[in-house]
Amino acid sequence: MSSYDVIVIGSGPGGYVCAIRCAQLGLKTACVEGRETLGGTCLNIGCIPSKALLHASHQLHEAEHNFAKMGLKGKAPSVDWAQMQSYKDEVIGQNTKGIEFLFKKNKIDWLKGWGSIPEPGKVKVGDELHEAKNIIIATGSTPSALPGIEIDEKIVVTSEGALSLPKIPKKLVVIGAGVIGLELGSVYARLGAEVQVIEYLDQITPGMDGEVCKTFQRLLAKQGLGFTLGAAVQKVDASKTKAKVTYKLRKDDSEHTVDADVVLVATGRKPYTDGLGLGDLGVEMTERGQVKTDSHYATNIKGIYAIGDAITGPMLAHKAEDEGMAVAEVIAGKHGHVNYGVIPGVIYTHPEVASVGQTEEQLKDAGRAYKAGKFSFMGNGRAKANFAADGFVKILADKDTDRILGAHIIGPMAGDLIHEICVAMEFGASAQDLALTCHAHPTYSEAVREAALACGDGPIHS
Ligand code: NAI
Questions:
Q1: What is the set of domains in the chain, with CATH numbers?
Q2: Nearest 10 degrees: CA dihedral of 298, 299, 304, 305?
């Protein structure tokens, strides 16, 4: 029986980052992973492969729509789907092997197999039992299916099947206008599929800033995505080659059907803790099936911790990473901490959408006095040169103190631009602090500064 200071179960962004930080802090560490490769959902069947397909399909879109305008003439590229798939697989391989390298470098043992916790202080992997002073559950999440819908990962798929379809469907129906539905819907729309998104609520990407949602839907519709909002999907009837989706419009209860070659079910994810033995151990769970933890990620059972999608909070890789580092520090006797008020959210469509902190709706509901500074990318020279002038930056600041409370960006590189606002918020900065910071010209980031200026005496370029 080998014994460790820490055994992390799961090697996704939460788990592998946690294992590396534990090792860096001098703890003898192992990580259990049953998949053939490290990296979890994010690297193998999530964030990374979807970004490869988003990148490739965006390049095609640029070639088809903008090359000729810049004087780049000639035949537009056609899609070699098999090659695009192998490009995607290569990207996955590079990343997962990178984690394997980091494990070796940090002397972390990869315990290959699916782990369970037969008793506190013990982890079973296959037939082997290992001892651990601390066990960290970082087992992530899995798609949550809808009742009446059977997933076969061929015709009716989750995000996993959607990344490896045998061919580009003529008609794709996406159930759920959340992050997964819109990212993958964008990919296939750009690759030539007719895409219809069916969403239960009356707006796309619920929870996001309302103004951003409206602009986002308009821009996606311009790219050819069709939206049926306020519609509850009832069932999907699938044959070997086709599917029929039945939904009810909530406003009048009328029933409708739509045919599809492929149906993507993107209606959320749920924590994945199957087979760990948590029930027998008496680990407390929330009503939503998440592992209950305290502010130090400790469960009610001594020596067992949990992080990432398996616990409460947004299901985001970077939130899991931060929790992984924090719990490692807690176990090592340091002061691990995550600021949940400053966790950015990004949708990697084109344009990208990014947000941090509070939305206008949340501030209004809380009765908080705030001001909004907004700047359109139409006033940004770099964006205009790059055919990327759709969208805007909006910064929300306290009306009296000018302290930044939130920011919402739809536009080019929004997912990168948001981070200067994250840093500003971490330092408790005011909008004026951002406005007084020199921003290089010509960059997209000038739009952030202009939005900050708009919280004060006004932007220059609008
Ligand atoms: P989501 O929770 O973002 O969106 C699901 C959508 O499905 C909601 O808008 C919901 O109203 C709708 N829906 C639910 N039942 C329905 C029904 N019967 N008929 C029609 N619509 C229905 O979930 P999603 O997109 O599956 O993503 C899962 C998780 O993965 C999220 O927490 C997300 O943040 C995370 N994720 C994050 C990414 C990123 O940060 N870029 C990328 C991919 C996933």
A1: 3-143+270-338 (3.50.50.60), 156-267 (3.50.50.60), 342-454 (3.30.390.30)
A2: -50
Integer CA distances (angstroms), 404 to 226, 254, 324, 409, in order: 35, 45, 27, 14
Whether 344 lines ligand 1, by a CB cut-off of 6 Å, is no
Give residue 231 CA to ligand 1 midpoint distance, Å.
15
Q: Using a 6 Å cutoff on CB, does residue 177 contact ligand 1?
A: yes
Please report, as a single letter, which amino acid is at residue 190. Answer: R
**93-110 confidence digits (pLDDT tens):** 999 999 999 999 999 999
Q: What is the pTM of this model?
A: 0.97
User: Residues 324, 13: contact at Cβ < 8 Å?
Assistant: yes
Lookup result for tokens 């002073």 = 133
Pocket probe for ligand 1: among 228, 236, 267, the residue whose CB has the most ligand atoms within 8 Å is 267
Q: What tens digit of pLDDT does each residue of 71-88 get? A: 999 988 999 999 999 999
Q: Is the CB of 227 under 6 A from ligand 1?
A: no
Q: What does the alpha-carbon distance between residue 307 and residue 194 come to, in Å, rounded to a whole number? A: 39
Round to whole Å and give the CA distance between 451 and 460.
10
Does residue 441 carry a catalytic annotation? yes
Is any ligand 1 atom within 6 A of the Cβ of residue 354? no
| Contact between 239 and 259 (Cβ < 8 Å) | no
